Each structure stands twice: as structure tokens, then as C-alpha cells.
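Q: Got a minute? One more chain.
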Amino acid sequence: MLHLEEIISNSERLFVGRDIPEYYYRDTYVKNIKPVYAVALPKTHEEVKALVQFAIEKDLVMLARGAGTGVAGAQVPIQGNELIIDVHLMDTIIELDEETLTLTVEPGVLVGAIHDYVEQKGYFYPPDPASKHSTIGGNVATNAGGLRAVKYGTTRDYVREMTVVLPDAEEMTLGSLNIKSSSGYDLKDLFIGSEGTLGITTKIRLKLVPLPKANVTILQAFETVLGATQATLEILKSGADPSGIELFERQALYYAEQNLGYPLKSQVGEAYLLMSLDGNDLNELTNRIDLVQSVTSKLALESHVLTVEEAKRNWALRDNILLGLTAFTEFELLDEVVPINKFAELIEATKEMQEKHGLNVLNFGHAGDGNVHTLLMKDDLTEDQWTKRRASLLRDLYQKVDELGGLPSAEHGIGIVKKEYMTSMTEDVNLDFMRQIKRVFDPDDRLNPGKVF
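A: Always. Here it is, folded:
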């Protein structure tokens, strides 16, 4: 029988029993995590395979983990006695192939590092989650979207090929370097967004595009959130083709301003749109800026075309909303999504629920693709008040999302936190086939069990 120390002899990459660092037992949304068997930090594909084989021989449940930035509990052990395979040390950028416009990386590479690397070479990897310190493996596991999804799509649109280790220790290559495929089932897309329940990714080939030559940021202020959502629809209908449209409320922004120590460019109104436009023709880009200004002129209180430095500072404020909140209060972050024409209605409904349930509700998110990040704020509520009011509001919220034709998660995943709502909002036949697919790849239910459905 294999021994863990034979697979990973470096004590800095293997922790067993009481030696497991405390941070593996901490999570914002999942409490009282039970002790796990061990945490192993492989650095090679072969070590991952050997660890899976060890788990089989020891009859252990296992789960993969990256940077630990997930907010749905998909990377959190829930049974006890698991083997955690932490791949964040598999962080090599292996190859940039300029002939096929692909970048080959290991799963532990941070998405921010990918952006920096390819842009220095004149290329562009569009998916841009606000969490730049998340790993590309985690992005693939949740089909992360982010700030530029309205124009460029999500992680799924930029994965050409993946190498995965299955729960029986067999390895598999999914996808290919070919741009088109009508050759059998698309197993690659099945694995993307599966939240680590079907296999462990060890190598990814990403599609790149040429880096746009010009980029501009526009900040607009509105009297209400409803005004900002109405402006979003006008911008999308206009043909201005923004690469991202971010919405946030004044109250949510307050925490980011406190955290970073400087204010947003605009200080009027209660809601804001921060949008980016990119392209290769400066004249054409100028025309699109004018178009945005024109179609929102009757809705916006202020509209600013930001300088490069202003854009950097204002986008940093957007990216720091959650970090600011973390420093000041306890909250629950959601990532529901609805058809774009229902975005305003959902925002309005959250405000009605705020009054009904006596719970402070804030919203920010990707207005251009219907993805709302609703924040439930604990503020000064007691633990009992927080628990009861949050549960009541969540039931109403997900019922409303369902009525509007939406989904419980756009980019964070279901994990364990949203499992209840996933099952209630998904038809039984769909859930049944998902479970059958899980059994095909993982008949022993060994890999990240109890997640998603």
C-alpha cells in the first residue's frame, strides 16, 4: 500500500492529523468544519494521480482546493476524515504558443498573474473576476465570469483543452486545440463548472485574443438603483458594446472608500455605473463614448470619462467592496442571475424584501449580464435575529429569482451554501441526470461529495 510520505516527502507540503494548519478549517459561510485526514500539496500531475490512488486504497473521500477564495463552500470539507488535495503550488505558466494563440498553465496559477503575463506579450485573456488572487483551476471549476463577461463571455469560452485526473486515478484529456468540434459529446464543457465533483484539473490550455489597443472607463451617478439599471438597458441596446458594466450602491461603496482611504470620482446620487469600452480604432471608440453619454443623458446625474489614473483608482474601489465590508461587518454574498430585462425588477424586489424582513440589503454586480451580487448585512443584529431573518429573506429572494427565469448562481457556484436552492429551482429530471453523470465518473462518490445537488 502507498504511504503519503512516499508520495510527498517534503513536510512543508504534507500535513496530517493535528499538524493541519488552522486555515483549512476556516470558511466565511461554512461553520464547524470537522477534522480531515490530511492535506497534501502536490506540485506535479503524477503526484495528484498518486494521491488519488492513495485515497482509493485508504477508502478516503477527497476534494481539490486552490486559493480558497470560493464563497459557496465547494472547496470546504463537510464530512470529516477527507484528504484535501491543495493544488495552489502547481502554479507554473508552462507555455505561450503564439501560433495557436493559447497559453498552457497549471491550475494553481492566479488569474491576475495570467493577465499580467499575457498583456506584457501583447495578448488578452478576457475573463476578469474581481478576485484576481483566485486560481485559474478554481475559475474553471466554477466557470467564473467577472467584469468583462457582457462582451467577452465566461471562463468556459476560453478553455481549449484540459487534463484531469478522475476519481479512479485515470487521466483524461478534454477538448483540443481545434477551434471547431462536432466530434462526439463535449466532455470539456461538462467538467467546466462542475465544482470539482468529476475530476481534478492538472493542466489547462487557454484561448487568448489580441490585446485591444485602447480602453476607456466611464463613471456615471444616478439618483436611484432603478435609474442605474434603466441606463444599463439603454447602453446595451445602443450598440455601444461595453466590455463591462458594473453597478454598485452608495452604501456598499462606502466600505471600499473607508478601506482604501480615498473617494469615488463622483459623490452624488445613490447608485453608480462603472463601465469600460475597448477597441482598436480611437475614432470609433470616441463615437461609442458619445453614444453612451447620449442614451443616458436623461437618467444620469453625472457622467465622467476617467483618466487612466482615475480609472485605476475607481476600479480598485469596485474591487474592494467585499474587502471593505469584511473589515467592518458580517455579511452574506449572493450571485444570483436573471435575464437582462429582469435585472431592474430583481433589484427593486430586494429593496422590498429589505423592508419586509428587517434586514439591510445592498446590491452590486455585473449589470451588463444580469448577474447581481446581493449582500445581506448583519449589522448589529443578534446571531438569532440574523439567522432567522436571513433564512426568511433567502427563501423569498430565490423564489423571486425563479419566477423571473433566473438561476441561483452565475459564477460562484452552488457548493454547499446554495444547494437547497439549486434543488428547489431545478427540475427533478435535470437533477436526476446530473446525479447519473456524477455516478458515471465517480461511482464511489469519492470526489467532493455532497456538493451542488
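A: Residues 4-86 form a domain with the Uridine Diphospho-n-acetylenolpyruvylglucosamine Reductase; domain 2 fold (CATH 3.30.43.10).
Q: Perfect, thanks.
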